[in-house]
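About this split. The held-out portion is used to measure sequence recovery: a designer receives only the structure tokens and must propose an amino acid at every position. Recovery is the fraction of positions where the proposal matches the reference. Here is one held-out target exactly as it appears in the evaluation file.
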């Protein structure tokens, strides 16, 4: 899988990879993840593709909270929200995983 930087994302390299239906990662996004998500989403949609954006590891975190009191209610609500989001973005061309701990995005072509 090819890795690019935020500057390469802004320069149009990601657009080329999207056109080729390639999977790739965008590294070194400390403090820039939100901007990078907006840029990559725009680039994917401008090429006529659909995408699903999600936070990596979020499902596991929500599942871990299902077992107790108020956190169980929050975990259940979070799981319902994720399920609704997955239905709204069913069968996307690309998935964009936000790896918050590693400050990176992983863009995967799904079809």
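Reference sequence for scoring:
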């Amino acid at each position: 899988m090819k890795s690019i930087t935020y500057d390469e994302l802004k320069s149009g390299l990601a657009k080329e990879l999207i056109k080729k239906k390639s999977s790739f990662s965008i590294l070194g996004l400390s403090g820039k993840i939100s901007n990078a998500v907006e840029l990559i989403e725009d680039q994917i949609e401008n090429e006529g593709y659909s995408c699903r954006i999600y936070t990596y590891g979020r499902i596991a975190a929500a599942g871990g909270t299902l077992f107790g009191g108020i956190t169980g209610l929050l975990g259940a609500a979070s799981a319902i929200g994720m399920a609704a989001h997955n239905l709204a973005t069913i069968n996307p061309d690309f998935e964009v995983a936000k790896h918050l701990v590693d400050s990176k995005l992983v863009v995967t072509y799904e079809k």
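Annotator remark: Residues 20 and 109 are 10 Å apart (CA to CA).
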